[in-house]
Each structure stands twice: as structure tokens, then as C-alpha cells.
Design a protein that fits this description.
Layout: H1 6-15, H2 17-30, E1 42-46, H3 53-61, E2 69-73, E3 86-92, H4 98-110, E4 113-118, H5 121-125, E5 133-135, H6 150-163, H7 171-177, H8 185-194, E6 198-204, H9 208-222, E7 226-231, H10 248-252, E8 253-260, H11 265-280, E9 284-290, H12 295-317, H13 325-334
Parallel strand pairs: 1-2, 1-3, 3-4, 4-5, 6-7, 6-8, 8-9
Helix pairs in contact: 1-12, 2-6, 3-6, 3-9, 8-12, 9-12
Protein name: SIS domain-containing protein
Keywords: Isomerase
Domain SIS: 30-187
Length: 336
């Protein structure tokens, strides 16, 4: 059998997003949880990078329906409000993330309700009766990169939220939202327009989490500068920032809007006026648009379309979409 290139591995992982979601859902459904893992007042997700952005995306996509508060914790310790009515999710794709391992130790020491989500490593070894968890298989992520395996955390989290009655998803609804998005030439065309620019990804409402994911993937897969911001917050300061350094934004910046037909009328108007203001200041804009039947499906469709887009940015830039040499170097230096 011919060995796949890194580009092929990356592309195949994107193609398999819905298979990852299905597997994550089924894996969570099969896990036995202690009888007292019910009626939590909040959920705290401890994770970094690709191990937490899927959870943040779901939090935003389901914000109108969620019956529980969700807090994303990117730190070595738990926030002060955590108590025995909190559910602490300890998420690390590799199982070696030091911030998450530190939080896991605190969960055990203080007797909090924790749930480990990992594929391997030291974190997997901590799974026990007192600290339950999931060690998921990664068959549908041939790239083995967390940012291209987000379907696992998405499926697991949706299944968990449904199980603890924080949301209500029927089999029919789940089947509808888990429709695969086919790649298209539009992604290649857009990649050629935005690659090699300083990209600001702008979104709002149920797609707010997607902007974070897309900027992360552009950074890592495309080796291309990208940042993210959300409306309406951006309108209160960013529009005044484009004069200095003189000419930089006009020459190098591009603002990519994640657009949805489901956005509120107020956000739709803000996008229109924001584009006008940017144009008057000489800033280029482009859009990635989705139109589906629900906020959650919008978010999942944007996730997959955005991943294809990032893959093509890596092609335009002529870079390896999987290797992350500077992040790896940084982690190596930290261990010294």
C-alpha cells in the first residue's frame, strides 16, 4: 500500500469530520458515569488549543438552547467559583497537556466531579472510578493533529450535554446536523485571495466559536498570520486602529467575515456597515457563507468548510499542513 503524503492525511481528516462526530457521540453514550453525575450548575472545560476549541464552538452554537453555564478554562488551576456542583471536563487530545494535567490533580485533590476526555498519555492513566473518563480511538483522524480531529470533542460534548439534559437532541435532529459538507472550488478560490495576508476572522452570535477555530487552523496549518474577533464588540474599538503603523493594514490585512443567513437583523446590518467602513479605509474583505436549517448545523458546516479553506491556504503557501515546528520547539524548551 502506498504511503499517504502529509497533505493527503490532512485532507482525509477533514473529509472524516462527520465520522469523528458519530464516533465521539457513540463513545460518550457507552461510558458509565457515576449516579451522581447529574444536575450540575456549571461545566468547566479545561483544555488548550485544539483540545478545547470544539467545546467553545458548541457553547456558542447552542447558546440559545443550553440550560447550563459553560466556562472555558485555559490555565493551570481551576477558577474560584468551582465547587462540587460543577462538572470539570479535562480535555487533552494527546493526554500530555501540562495545564490540563495540573487541573486534573486539583480535581482529584479537592474531590470535584471530573470527566477526562483524551486519546492517550498521562491523562488516560488517571481514569478511574473516582475520576471517570473517555479514551477515544482516533481512527478517523489519519493526520493525528488535534485541530483536524475536532469532531471527536464535538460528538462527545453533544452526547454528554444531551445525556445530562443540558440540551435535547433527538436522533432525527442529530442526523440532520451531522450532514457532511462537500469540498468545492470556492474554497480553493477563496484561499488564493486570502493567503499571505494578515487575516482577521470576524463572526458573531452562533458562529463566534468558529472564528477562533478558523484562526487557529490558519495559523498552524497554513503557517499564516490570523486573528479573530466578534461582532458587535469589534465595532466599539477596532475600526479606529487602522491608521498606524502607516499603510500596514491597507497593504497586508484582509478581513474574513463568517456569515450566516441565521444572524439577527442587527448583526446583518453591522456586517454591512462594517464592510463599508473598512472599504473606505482601504481594507480588503471576503466572506465565507453558510445557509442551513439550524444554528448548530451552521456551525458544523462552517467548521468543515473552514478546514478545507485552511488546507488550501497551506497549498498556496507551499507549507506542510501538519508539522508545527515552532510550537514543538517551544514545548521542548519548556521541559528543560
Amino acid at each position: 500500500m502506498q504511503k499517504l503524503t502529509k497533505q493527503q492525511l490532512a485532507y482525509n481528516s477533514i473529509d472524516l469530520l462527520t465520522a469523528q462526530i458519530d464516533q465521539g457521540w457513540a463513545t460518550m453514550k457507552a461510558v458509565e458515569l457515576p449516579a451522581n453525575y447529574q444536575k450540575f450548575t456549571n461545566i468547566v472545560v479545561c483544555g488548550m488549543g485544539g483540545s478545547q476549541i470544539g467545546f467553545a464552538m458548541i457553547r456558542q452554537a447552542l447558546s440559545k438552547e443550553l440550560k447550563i453555564s459553560i466556562y472555558i478554562n485555559n490555565d493551570y488551576s481551576l477558577p474560584g467559583f468551582v465547587d462540587r456542583k460543577s462538572l470539570i471536563i479535562l480535555s487533552s487530545y494527546s493526554g500530555t497537556t501540562e495545564e490540563v494535567l495540573s487541573c486534573a490533580q486539583e480535581v482529584t485533590k479537592k474531590g470535584y466531579h471530573g470527566l477526562i476526555i483524551t486519546s492517550n498519555g498521562l491523562l488516560a492513566r488517571r481514569i478511574s472510578k473516582s475520576l471517570p473518563g473517555i479514551k477515544f480511538a482516533t481512527d478517523f483522524n489519519p493526520s493525528q493533529q488535534p485541530r483536524l480531529g475536532l469532531g471527536y470533542s464535538v460528538g462527545i460534548f453533544l452526547s454528554l450535554l444531551n445525556r445530562i439534559k443540558a440540551i435535547k437532541l433527538s436522533k432525527k435532529t442529530f442526523a440532520l446536523i451531522n450532514l457532511s459538507v462537500a469540498d468545492s472550488k470556492d474554497n480553493q478560490t477563496l484561499a488564493k485571495k486570502i493567503a499571505k495576508k494578515m487575516i482577521l476572522v470576524v463572526s458573531a452570535e452562533h458562529l463566534a466559536g468558529n472564528a477562533h477555530i478558523l484562526s487557529n487552523q490558519i495559523n498552524e496549518s497554513g503557517k499564516n498570520q490570523a486573528y479573530w474577533a466578534n461582532l458587535p464588540e469589534l465595532n466599539h474599538h477596532f475600526l479606529e486602529s487602522l491608521s498606524f503603523p502607516k499603510g500596514l493594514a491597507q497593504q497586508k490585512m484582509l478581513v474574513l467575515f463568517l456569515e450566516s443567513a441565521s444572524y439577527s437583523a442587527k448583526i446583518q446590518k453591522r456586517i454591512k456597515v462594517t464592510k463599508q467602513v473598512l472599504k473606505q479605509q482601504g481594507i480588503r474583505t471576503e466572506s465565507l457563507k453558510v445557509k442551513t436549517k439550524s444554528d448548530l448545523q451552521d456551525s458544523l458546516s462552517t467548521l468543515q468548510s473552514g478546514s478545507y479553506l485552511c488546507y488550501y491556504i497551506s497549498v498556496v503557501n507551499g507549507v506542510d499542513p501538519l508539522d508545527i515546528p515552532w510550537v514543538d520547539y517551544f514545548k521542548k524548551e519548556l521541559k528543560k
